[in-house]
Every structure is written in C-alpha cells, then in structure tokens.
Amino acid sequence: MITNTELRERGMRLFNELYGNGAGEELRKDMADLCPDFTDISIEWAMGGILARPGLDAKTRELVVIASCVTLGHTVPQLRAHAQAALNAGATREEIIEVVLQLLFYAGGAAVRNALVNIRDIINAELNIEAKMS
C-alpha cells in the first residue's frame, strides 16, 4: 500500500513538472493562511493519487481535465492552469483547441467560447515563441 508520504512526493514531482519547479511550494504558501490542508490534499490525492496513475500519459490527462473545466464553466483559473500544464506536457495549441471545440454540442457554445477566450493568451504564447525563433 502506498503511503501519504509517497503520494506527496509523487504528487509534488508531477506538480512541479507540469507547472514549473517550485509551483507546489508556491501553492502551499498561497493557501497557508486560508486552508493549508488544501495543498496537502491536492498534491497527495489529486496529483499523486490520480494524475500520476499509470494508464494515461500526462498530456492526455491534462486534456481530459481541460474538457472537464470547460464543461463546468466556472473554473477559469483552473482551466488556464491546466492549459499551460497541457502545453508543458507536450500538447499542441491545435490539440487543446480541438478538445475545447469538441465540447461545443456537449457543454454549449457559450462555455466553449468563454474557454477559448480565457486561454487565448496561453495557447498563443507558443505561436509567439515560434515566430521569434524564425
């Protein structure tokens, strides 16, 4: 059986891989005065226990989470974070757009439009980097 310490370590590694080194500690500091348990639960359970499971790669998992955020419709900060994490995990701008567009008939036009508008700067940053390198 996996321990909480192992889940925390596995979750923190994945969190830092997807969101950048030190991101886990930044989240911990951000939530320390409000609800320190939130970070521990998020890192151990969500990242270490669910997102780090075998069976799907990190890119695919992040695309699934993006779809979930779009469908919920009220998770803009999480949508933005997972769009960046998907790019960091190897997803392309086109893949992210297709995942969001796939939800047009399931989540509705407003949810899809809002999602695209809210992640525009994140997914277009990749284009800006490529243009500068050309």
From TrEMBL:
Domain of life according to the entry: Bacteria
Stretch forming the signal peptide: none
An MF annotation (GO) of this entry: peroxiredoxin activity
Protein name, UniProt field: Carboxymuconolactone decarboxylase-like domain-containing protein
Coiled coil stretches, renumbered: none
Domain Carboxymuconolactone decarboxylase-like, residue spans: 48-116
